[in-house]
Amino acid sequence: MRLAITRSSVVKFAVAVSLIGTFAACGDDDGPTGPGAFPDLRGDWVGQYVVTECTTTVGLNQFLCNEVFYVSRSLPFAMTLQQSSERVDGPAVQGALEGTVDGTVDMAGVLGLDGALSSSGGASTTIAQWETLLVGDSLVGTFSFEVEDLSDSGFGTVLVDAEIVMVGPSVLTYEFCPVELFLAQTDSIDGVLEAGDCQLSDETYYDVYAVEVAVGDSLQITMSSTEYTPFLVIADVDEVILDSAGDTADSVATVALESVVDETWLILANSLDTLETGSYTLTTADIRGAAPVAGLIFKKVPFERRASGPTEDKAAAVVSGRSLAEKFSRRSGAVAKAKREGS
Questions:
Q1: What is the pLDDT of residues 291-323, one digit of tens each?
Q2: Which DSSP string corresponds to 2-23?
Q3: Is the dihedral of CA 326, 68, 75, 54 positive or negative?
């Protein structure tokens, strides 16, 4: 499931927010709470951008537009912002490319950024346009950037237009994709995997949910779909995979877990195969120690699964040995590995 964004909608929303703030000021002295009374954008921001258009501007090779920045491709972006009054700046990571961004935020929360990022011998990107609006704990808007091939592969230069949603540190994410909904321990929700959703390293789409568990809680979690083979992943908030399920012969994927600590589990509704789309049903059931469905064995989540920490540091930019495409689509690959091990 995804949020549709246009440049005009961002501007209109910003104007509306500004007007609301003006009217509120007539009877209330409260305003923005950031540095210098501007909206506060300090801290870590992570998200994924969705490509809406790609145009080759230098050269004839279409590899970048056809294989890396194809329309509806979802790719990661992260930044850590510092702020002084309306001015913001800080380091940024686009896949495995590193650089800095700087710009300004106005009183309505509209952020404009410039910047350049690169990787040794791979590629560079230059921000051509960035316009996002601060909405709660999210930055929502549009992002355009120029990509230049530095690998001597003859891929030329392209201009990419994208929609972007980023979230602050208070929002739980899995590989830069925010949790859409917290589920009860016994719950059911219908969802859709569609073009423009967050994507994993194997280019499969996924939605992220969360559920709170306490010591001794026993949950059976099921994902079903008649349109593709579902793949279900359970992880902790450090992105350590606790269990997964999904098989080419099944339309249902089920896991059963018993918690040994009080924590939050992240639930990834995913597909087994690349670029699969369609509806699904996700169900959680608190079975309170009862036996799970036939043939399924309860797994206790061991403490040692957390000892290793996250699969890969979000802030790291490991670039050696990666192809040009991998530099932009950098993911941990943990889910893809779980699929291979389960097949």
A1: 666 556 656 665 444 444 333 332 332 222 235
A2: -----HHHHHHHHHHHHHHHHH
A3: positive
